[in-house]
Amino acid sequence: MTMFRSLILFVVTLIPAVLSAQKPPVLTGFVPLSESELQSGIIRLFDGISAYGWKNAEVKNGKLTYTAAIRPDSLEDSPVRFFLPRNTIINSLLNDITLDNSKYRPSNAAAIFDGKTLGNWKIIGDVKAAVEDGTILLTGGSGSLESAGIYGDFVLQLEYKTDKPVNSGVFFRCIPGEKMNGYECQIFNHPPDADYEKYIGTDTGGLFRRQIGRNAGAKDGVWNYLTVAARGNEFASWVNGLQVMDFKDERKADVNPRKGLRTEPGTIQFQGHDATTEIQFRNIRIALIEKNK
Asked: Does the pLDDT at position 140 exceed 50?
């Protein structure tokens, strides 16, 4: 019995370490994209300051260079994998392996909100949604606004604005009709320290309970730009054009994403966390990733 109790105590002691993470410092030293570039959907494949998201690569004099002999699959283990077909990656980039603040705009993105009405988007739970001046205004909670369409592998881009510290998020691959039962790319520009002590991924761009996001300096009171990419068991996010999350879900497959890897298509949901929620969304568009990518 003593040994059993010791084991239980050991496991319980480990839980906070597994779930919690330290608050990341604000990234500096990178060249920000212009407002017009961000509005057009441009992101950086390489941020100019680190090899984040890339393997077998290093940064020298502000340029990203591969350090190992390049293989056909090497660039597929990089941010490029979410945007370009495999044959394009190999043919166009294989012999050009030095990148300098590479800019890229996802192609073939289609609007899933027309800026006029909510259309077939529906409310789940205790949240209110209205369209004002081309934006969705989401208030209150706990609840979510759910898309009509379902999406599996995709690149989602949108703009959001909070005028005060607000806890919200973009859920994806959700089980249709169920409140926020999906992966969550968090939106919380200024989470309290107590949140970092409890959870991984509580900050903007982080994948909640999965991976902490790098701090790209998202701010309340201005429009911020969010890109979320999902392909199979791989996920990434960009905040204001800078990659902040790169995660591979290696759990066993499960229809319920709270219990395991969900690869089945699901809905997009915007979170109303609680009664204090007040957040705007606009320019919501999505590009599907083809199966041969």
From this structure: yes
Least confident of 89-98, 128-137, 237-246: 89-98
Structural domain containing residue 55: 46-101
Q: What's the CATH code of the domain at 199?
A: 2.60.120.560
- Please give the pLDDT value at position 29: 92
CB 108 within 8 A of CB 287: yes
**pTM beyond 0.85:** yes
Residue 267 lies in a domain: yes
- Residue 53 CA: distances (Å) to CA of 1, 201, 232, 239: 46, 17, 16, 14
Dihedral angle over CA of 235, 239, 242, 247, nearest 10: -20
What pLDDT score does 68 carry? 63
4 assigned to some structural domain: no
Note the pLDDT tens digit of each residue in 180-223.
999 999 999 999 888 988 899 999 999 999 999 999 999 999 99
Phi-psi region of 155 (alpha: psi -120 to 50; beta: other; left: phi over 0): beta
As separate numbers, helices (DSSP H) first and strands (DSSP E) second, the chain gives 4, 18
CA angle 250, 256, 258 (to 5 degrees): 65
Would you report the helix, strand and coil content of the chain in percent, each value rounded to 5? 15, 35, 50
Domain finish residue from 101, 121, 142 = 101
